[in-house]
Amino acid sequence: MTEQQQSACAELARRMGWRTVQYRHIGTGSCWKLINPRNEEVESALASEVAAYFYAPDYFNSPVASRELMAWLAADDDRWFVFIRQLIKLIDWPTQSAHKIADATFAEIASEVRYLMTAPLPIIARAACKALGIEVSE
Q1: pTM of this prediction?
Q2: β-pair partners for 29
Q3: Distance separating alpha carbons of residues 89 and 83, to the nearest angstrom
Q4: What is the pLDDT of residues 79-112, one digit of tens each?
């Protein structure tokens, strides 16, 4: 994962409800811990907030993290719509598909949705970043 992708993952995690907490550690002084949206401690005794977010999920390569990202995006209609638009732009979407979708059969629509939902994980993560205004290279 590149440094820019790591930064994007940290920002995605923040927006999805991940947070850091600073606390006092005996012997080492001030430390940070990373807490997930379920209020579970993921990692602790870290030197800085930046170091804590190093343990954020890898939305570019982890299938589990990508699924959580998709579920979070889908939970809000506006966010989901912008994400889908960005995803369509990033994948090799067949040109005729956008025009035919209005008259498509269920099987054709299912095929198109499958095409979108099985996009490679880095493309899904980049589309999410673009939809949320997070800079990440192609």
Answers
A1: 0.82
A2: 25
A3: 10
A4: 998 898 888 888 766 555 555 555 667 677 677 7
